[in-house]
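retry 2 of 3: previous attempt timed out while embedding iron/sulfur/oxygen hybrid cluster. Reduced batch size to 1 and resubmitted. Inputs unchanged:
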Amino acid sequence: MFCFQCEQTKSRRGCVTVGVCGKSAQVAALQDLLIYVLRGLAMHASRAMDMGLYESADCDLFVRKAMFSTLTNVNFDQDRFPEYIRQAVEYRDSIRSALQKAYENTGTPFPDVLNQGPAVWKPEKGYNDLEYLENEGHEVGVLEDQDIYGPDVNGVRYMTIYGIKGLAAYSVHAESLGEDDPLVSKFILQTLDFLETGDEADRHDLGINLQKALDVGTTNLRVMELLDRGHRKMFGIPTPTNVCTTPKEGKCILVSGHDMVDLHLLLQATENTGIHVYTHGEMMPAHMYPGLNKFKSLAGHFGGAWQNQRIDFATFPGPVLASTNCVIEPLKSYRERLYTLNDTGVHDVKHIDLHNPKHMASLLEHTNSLPGFDIKTAAKYEDKKFVVGFGREVILQHAEQVLQAVQNGDLRRICVIGGCDGSEHKRNYFTNLASSLPTQTLILTLGCAKYRINHLDFGTLGDTGIPRLLDMGQCNDSYGAIMVAKELAGALDTDINSLPLSISLSWFEQKAVAVLLSLLSLGVKNIKLGPVMPAFLTPGVRQALEDTYGIVPTDIRHPDDDMEDMMKGL
Ligand code: FSO
Ligand code: SF4
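retry 2 succeeded.
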């Protein structure tokens, strides 16, 4: 195996025997094979679109869900991948038949590129032979492509693929909220096709590949806009809300991941049953939506960021649902209580669909068979005083006050410190950076990286009454932060880079790659990216990005120096 798609990759180079995340070599190879076959599907779909022959909302959603399954900490179940691969081959071949007929009818020869590689790959031994599929997957990964394209271009090509994975995941969330745009899938399929069959010189050109990666960022902005709209349409405008972290006596279920639709289904099913539902990790922003917070069964938040799940899940006295990333191989102590949903998977862990009434009923039955919280245990958890819900609407209500504070010198800088978190100790950098900021700053945070700073008391900004730390929501809510920046720039008749705004982005996996590419596609400069730079970017490419965008690694040992740079706008 070779995988370097996330920040925690082994020795800052790549995981080669087993993932730091726990992904086995077998699952890594199956995921590589899946991406390979999806590339073959895209080669056909892209041509079918050009000829007006492609109409498949089902296929569009399948491609995005299949890509979602390959994100870091989403699906570790080797038994799920043969089915994804089988479906990808089936969709590919049905588009292929339509294309073949069209070519026959016009008397044009079928393109040669569609008679090789991922365009025609089929399992000689069927889909049940995992070892065979694994061996096939070991032949079609990063290193094989690197032999063809060299490390610089290959790294950028993989940045494009990882960005597409991130935007695919976000668009699956948006779709479940009823928001979709066919242009998103069109972009995914055409870009995957370019990586496979684009003009040979273009495919080897660093500049053209960098532009493709930026195009991922532009499309991701559209996806985040859909997501923003979907959440608001379904659950209302986020409102500042105190989140209760002291559990209540009674039966309980914990929900982790990002999927508010799953949480909503669960809240509907548990209302007035006496079962309490708690959020974990990236689900905490659920409390900011009136349409979710109105449920009495939404009892509070339990635990910290995803990387604490082994402690948090082990001590939780009820079932735990992993709705999306980030899930990790469970400990024995809670394996029986863990459920995966959607494209998330862990081998031999129950996988359910909350839309299925039977699955929901058996989950509630399981909940009632477990102890839940008793008064004594519940009282041991102190209130952490988390406040969520500073969405773009709330912040922009105070735009005039904020701009006035900038003019008075009461507000010297708005610092975005957020993104995704990980378990490494060096991520304390973000805590230290935030703590070292002068009091004349506002800190916008989102994503699970908020847990590095949301336990600290930053007070309010001068006498404005505005809290200095404003939690905007999940990483899914990055669109809101971008809109705030755009609106403030508009009000000051300037551009984002001329605002007193600095960004320190904590990245971990491919959703963060998509968000980073969105920021770059908007021309945002001087982002500090950390805790370390992506392993898939070579020193040469990092330098090119620094030269063009001023993007630099966080100085993890010297957060004070970074703070001073940020205050100077560097
Ligand atoms: Fe975090 Fe995980 Fe939300 Fe990521 S829970 S790390 S970028 O999946 O998506 O912020
Ligand atoms: Fe390694 Fe990250 Fe890939 Fe897991 S997802 S195998 S930790 S690079």
